[in-house]
Fold this sequence. Notes:
The complex is a heterodimer of chains A (about 230) and B (about 270).
Chain A (H helix, E strand, L loop, with lengths): L1 H13 L14 H12 L2 H15 L13 H18 L4 H40 L10 H36 L11 H16 L3 H20 L1
Chain B lengths: L1 H11 L4 H10 L14 H15 L4 H11 L10 H16 L5 H41 L3 H33 L13 H22 L8 H19 L4 H18 L4
Amino acid sequence: MSDSLFLSIIFGLICLDQRYIFQFNISQPLFTSTLIGLITGHTQEAVYFGALVQLLWLSNLPIGASVIPDGNIASVIGTILYIKYNAIFAEHGYFLLLISIFLVVLFSYVGGQLDIFARYRNEHIMNRALKSLRRENKKVRLGPYILASLTGHFIINVILIFTGIESGAWLLDILYLKVPSVLNIHWRFVEIALIGTGIGMILGIYHSKKNYTLIGVAAVLILIIRMAA
Amino acid sequence: MKQTEQEREHMEKRISFGAKVSILLRSLFIQAGWNYKGMISMGFGFALAPLARMLYKNDPAAYNAFLRRHLGFFNAHPYFASYALGAIVRLEEDIAAGKVSVDQEEHFKNALIGPLGALGDQLFWGVIRPAVFAFGVLGYYLYDDIKDQLTILLLLFILYNLPHLYIRIHGFWRGYRDGYKVCRILKMENFRFIKRAYMGLGLFCVGILAGLNAPFPPHVLPMEFLIFIVSIVTAAYLKVLKARTYFAMTIPILIALLLELITGNL
């Protein structure tokens, strides 16, 4: 539990980069999964899962005021669960991948909803700032209001990651008892379906004949090289 | 003599280089207080605070009124908001010098919302980010060693943040220099080169990814090939239809499981 809390604090802070500060995009799954791998010592598994999830979130566009799935935080939760359980139940590999991805989707939805809550909370903070700014005798500093907003976002991130890890672990513990490992082979298409889904979603955002032609040419070129090899 | 005095007064209202840097650094927090009422206005006001401090040093009422004005409503792409920040700094200096009215500035600010949002969303969220991270995923796919992967991450960080920081810094200085006239450069044509370069990179990387991951030859791996194609088509179709991301993500996976069920493997 202390490990989960430690990781929640670290990644709660890093995930502020997603929407609220800097936006250098270091909270994207490729970065966070590599960091999780380096911290926990399971680099290979973390990087594998992170790259798969990154592919899924490539087409996630935070346009205007739209509420989008909180893919980055959800990916942190998914990666931590994936490496933790992959180390214990290696014989359940495909099943674990499937459940971890569904958990990522679920927590991305929860994250999106919490973002709406945070936006209303910020509105309340701004109203307080506007009220203070009616004063005429003393300059009002906006820094404390920004800090209050950021603290709120950070706390929400930490709570989401922590509860995500703990509830996901609880669910996986139950599932591993119920689902026999012999069924693992039947989930083997999950990986290929995930890669296909990620590529398909990108095709969806690059929707034009010209773009499809370029993608097609690159793909065919690689297939020819593979055939020749 | 009178003109010289006016000029000196005007010169005194110009913002220092240090304050400009401070505004630029504060703009990194522009989305910190994002809300439905003012959108990015709280971050925008926070970024402009050094200017208010300079212009209304000994007048708390004017200082507070300045911030209250900027807490009203404003929205833009977080990176492209720098163009607005620079231009508003220039206009605020002119307001303090009595050259421009507050209403004019408000109209100008409202006129910037559309172009800044559209440009940034199209360029960064629609092209640069998917392209750079597609490159990253491809790099991770091709190189297994963690040292190579860390190099790819560094490259990724530079590839993404080079245009990001360029827009932030250049946008602020250009906005400050041009004032009202900054609207003229806020057209996609002026960013065509960046867009094309990153678009090419993205499409190429996605194509290579598809080629590398396609189960091949199809007659040896027919089920895998079928699932791969069905997943691509379903996800692309759902995305084009603007279905919710959750559906576009889960439905192809469920179809894959269903296909296995139908073919009798489960």
